Amino acid sequence: MTGGTIPSPNLWNWPEVYERENRAQDVDGAIWDALREEAPWAGADVVDVGCGDGFHLPHFAREAASVVGVEPHPPLVRRARERGLPVVRGGAAALPLPDASADLVHARTAYFFGPGCEPGIEEAERVLRPGGALAIVDLDATQAPYGDWMRADIPHYDPVRAERFFVRRGFSLRRIATRWTFEDRATLEEVLRIEFSRAVADRAIAATPGLTVPVAYRLHVRRRGATGRLSRA
C-alpha cells in the first residue's frame, strides 16, 4: 500500500498498455447501458473515484453538468488532466470534495474485495446529495473465463464474499456480460500479461484463439436518502 492506497500495478506500471486495454473493453457498451438505467447522469454532477488516467471522464462529460476525477497516484493525475477535464489528487477514504456536491459517485474496478472499503462508502455518502447514487462497477470473478483466471491468480480472493458485502449493505446487484475485443493479437497478449502472472497469462492466451475475450462485470448501486443514508436503487 502507498499512503493507505492499494496500488493498481497494471495501470500504475503500464499506463500505455492499459490505455489500449480500456479501448478494447466493453465494445458493445453494455456497462454504460446498465449504468444509464440504474444511475443516469444526464445533467448531473459526477465524481469518478479512482479515475486512473481519466479514460471514462469524457464519456460522462458528454451528458453530465460537471465531472471531476479523483485519483491518488500523481503520474496518473497528470495523465488524466491531459484529457482536459478536472482531476484532483485524493483517495476514496478522503475525497477532496465538499459535502453534498455530487449526484453520482462512480467507482470502476476499484472495490474488488468488498470488506475494507467501508471508509470509501462513507465518503460517498458525505459528498452525495439526497437522491444521489453510488455506483460500483467491478469484474465478476464468478463467471468464466476471465473470472477463472482472476481467481487462479488471486487464490485468497472470494468474489461471493465481496458480492455479499455489498448486498448486505443495501446495494443492488446486476450482472453484465461484455466483450473485450482487441485490434490485434499482440495487444491482446500484452494486456493479459499485465493483468495476470506469467503462468496464468500463458493459460489465458492459450485459451483465447482470436481477438475477443468474454468478461463479466457486476454493478452495485445504492442511493442516498433524504436522511443522509444510502438506500438500495
UniProtKB/TrEMBL annotation:
Residues 47-136 form the Methyltransferase type domain. GO terms for biological process: methylation. Keywords: Methyltransferase, Transferase. One of its GO terms (molecular function) is S-adenosylmethionine-dependent methyltransferase activity. CDD domains: AdoMet_MTases. It comes from the Bacteria. This is Methyltransferase domain-containing protein. SUPFAM superfamilies: S-adenosyl-L-methionine-dependent methyltransferases. InterPro entries: Methyltransf_11, Methyltransf_Superfamily, SAM-dependent_MTases_sf.
